[in-house]
Amino acid sequence: MRYDRADATSIDLFVSEIIGFTRHRTRVYARHGDAPLPAPELVCLQDHAFADTLRRARVVRAAARAAPPDLISVQQHLPYAAAIAGVSAPVILQKHNFIRPPRSSGWLASASRRRHIRQFQRLQGIVFVSASVQSDFEENWPTVTIPRCIVPNGFDPSLWKPKEIRSREVLVVGRATPEKGLLEAAQGIENALKFQPDWSAVLVVAETARNLAYTAELEKTLAPLGARARILKDVPSEKVRALNEEAALVVVPSTWREPFGRTCLEAHAGGAAVISSGTGGLREISGPEALYLTSITSEAISRAVTALIEDEDTRAHIARAGNHRVFKRFGLHQTARTLDDFCHARIDDHRRSKR
């Protein structure tokens, strides 16, 4: 993770947004570059060549001793959270993806599992990004008994201004990695738009430097559309928001089980009609207000895109309904209230345990 405008992850964006709505006064400890995301107080954590987790944890533990906080929330990284636990404040972990059991077998798996359980039990609580992630955790880690709740990603409704008149564009946003399904989407969209000369395609691709070959394959796939296809690389979140506010269609083609799916949330928030693979937490976002793919293939994507291009009434209906759904369920004032209530309960538990 990197708390910086240039290359923030969805987790960094979650933190930067929710701290503007929480009732708590917040200090953020994070790696960042020359253009950090906003925070009331921000402390830069340095990179270390070795023992990175423990050395960063020492910084936070020392700060907690010098000025004790009411609670410490660690994003994503269990070993880091466990290394901080034990200070005078409760420590919770916020998980934004699935927590897999050990992949090894035999005594190594047993030892790894016992270590993970000990790390979990050092914490005062755990927060999951979706019901899908929580249910998976409860299935795989049934002996972990710490309190838990679900706090999905949210968005600031005041920042989103969906356009009434939509551009005839099909938008896809994702990282340059196969599990995001961008290649299948590019193939399907290219095939569909061959017969729709008034429509164009926009692919917003993040982390392109990590997979140059994959990015090159996307460019090759869309080349037959010429000027009607654009690939935008590593663009800031503000630009992604503007594209979602304008595009008529957004395809969310993830081939893996999405823990949540921020790109889907932002598509609905922007007022686009959404075509979704529906994996993992994606259905929690869209509910019935998306067109779900019958399979995550270029052929299925081509059929879905063609169907919504040619059926303007259905396209407009699911766009409005999806937008209404996320404004009602995923506004940051709601998600922050859920997180605040959970944090206050953990603070109260911790204080009672010290009496």
Per-chain topology:
Blueprint: H1 10-18, E1 27-30, E2 41-44, H2 52-66, E3 72-75, H3 78-84, E4 91-95, H4 106-121, E5 125-128, H5 131-140, E6 148-150, E7 167-175, H6 182-193, E8 200-206, H7 212-222, E9 229-233, H8 237-246, E10 247-252, H9 262-269, E11 273-276, H10 282-286, E12 291-292, H11 298-310, H12 312-329, H13 332-354
Parallel strand pairs: 1-2, 3-4, 4-5, 5-6, 7-8, 7-10, 8-9, 10-11, 11-12
Distance between the termini: 37 Å
Order of strands, widest sheet: 9-8-7-10-11-12
Number of strands: 12
- The secondary structure category is alpha/beta
Provide an overview of this structure.
The chain has 355 residues and is an alpha/beta fold. It has two domains: 10-154 and 333-354, Glycogen Phosphorylase B (Rossmann fold, 3-Layer(aba) Sandwich); 157-329, 3-Layer(aba) Sandwich (Rossmann fold), CATH 3.40.50. Helix content is 44%, strand content 16%. It contains 13 helices and twelve strands. The strands form three sheets. The protein has a six-stranded parallel sheet, with helices on both faces. Strand 11, helix 10 and strand 12 form a beta-alpha-beta unit. It is elongated and about 70 Å long. The chain starts with 9 loop residues before the first helix and ends with a helix. The model has no long low-confidence stretch (mean pLDDT 95).
Please give a handful of descriptors for the protein shown.
alpha/beta, Rossmann fold, 13 helices, 12 strands, elongated, 6-stranded parallel sheet, 355 residues, single chain, 4-stranded parallel sheet
